[in-house]
Automatic annotation (TrEMBL):
<feature type="domain" description="ABC transporter">
    <location>
        <begin position="2"/>
        <end position="230"/>
    </location>
</feature>
<dbReference type="Pfam" id="PF00005">
    <property type="entry name" value="ABC_tran"/>
</dbReference>
<protein>
    <submittedName>
        <fullName>ABC transporter ATP-binding protein</fullName>
    </submittedName>
</protein>
<comment type="similarity">
    <text>Belongs to the ABC transporter superfamily.</text>
</comment>
<dbReference type="GO" id="GO:0005524">
    <property type="term" value="F:ATP binding"/>
</dbReference>
<keyword id="KW-0067">ATP-binding</keyword>
<dbReference type="InterPro" id="IPR003439">
    <property type="entry name" value="ABC_transporter-like_ATP-bd"/>
</dbReference>
<keyword id="KW-0029">Amino-acid transport</keyword>
<dbReference type="InterPro" id="IPR052156">
    <property type="entry name" value="BCAA_Transport_ATP-bd_LivF"/>
</dbReference>
<dbReference type="InterPro" id="IPR017871">
    <property type="entry name" value="ABC_transporter-like_CS"/>
</dbReference>
<keyword id="KW-0547">Nucleotide-binding</keyword>
<dbReference type="InterPro" id="IPR003593">
    <property type="entry name" value="AAA+_ATPase"/>
</dbReference>
<keyword id="KW-0813">Transport</keyword>
<dbReference type="InterPro" id="IPR027417">
    <property type="entry name" value="P-loop_NTPase"/>
</dbReference>
Amino acid sequence: MLELKGIVAGYGGTTVLRGVDLLVPEGSVVAMLGANGAGKTTLLRVASGLLPATGGQLVLDGTDVTRSSPHQLVTRGICHVPEGRGVFPSLTVQENLILQSLRGEEKRAIERAVEAFPRLGERLSQVAGTMSGGEQQMLALARTYVQHPKVVLLDEVSMGLAPKIVDEIFDFLARLRNEGCSLLLVEQYVTRALEVADYVYLLNRGEVAFAGEPSELAGEDVFTQYVGADIGH
Ligand SMILES: Nc1ncnc2c1ncn2[C@@H]1O[C@H](COP(=O)(O)OP(=O)(O)OP(=O)(O)O)[C@@H](O)[C@H]1O
């Protein structure tokens, strides 16, 4: 279980997160929703160690990992698929996968990635930066998958992609979950996110405005107030 306790964080003199408490129980999918600028990306960056919290604690399976580096957190099983994907554009698909896999497991890693996204199998020697946006996103997700993560932090992974690709991505998220992974999902497709989520958090100006199960959100004013009807498709 990943626990964020009273997280305070920001950039320079600006505080963005103002004491956020959030739980990602083992094997569950948690959707984090909120308007633009609410602090969702910032929270994922704290959870992956990219942005140090100035207050609060990050706890993984009972161990305080607040001061751990991003690399240490990856080793402990926290993987981050950032906005903008984070693949190495000048390397091939295969090289991207090998770089991310555990030593000695390279062959198995490629098999696993191709099993999840057959399309990547047809493109192993293609330079990642020349692939379509959807294919690059598949690669970004596959890179995470080959690390056998415990918790995956996903930042708008379906943004700007065709509906068919979005379907494939959501199938992949279901696969991750079925393998026992926990997911913390920031997603613009609110309805889809709520369909897969066990728990939902609404973030508003760096504070948790709602935490509960998706079914509890029905009829909640807080939803339209903080998420906005414009992204509720
Ligand atoms: N590197 C940065 N330096 C300074 N301020 C930043 C930086 N990154 C984000 N911010 C500010 O922090 C606030 C929260 O941003 P964040 O990206 O976490 O929001 P978000 O909820 O993910 O929004 P969006 O849905 O638009 O991605 C915003 O006001 C943003 O301008």
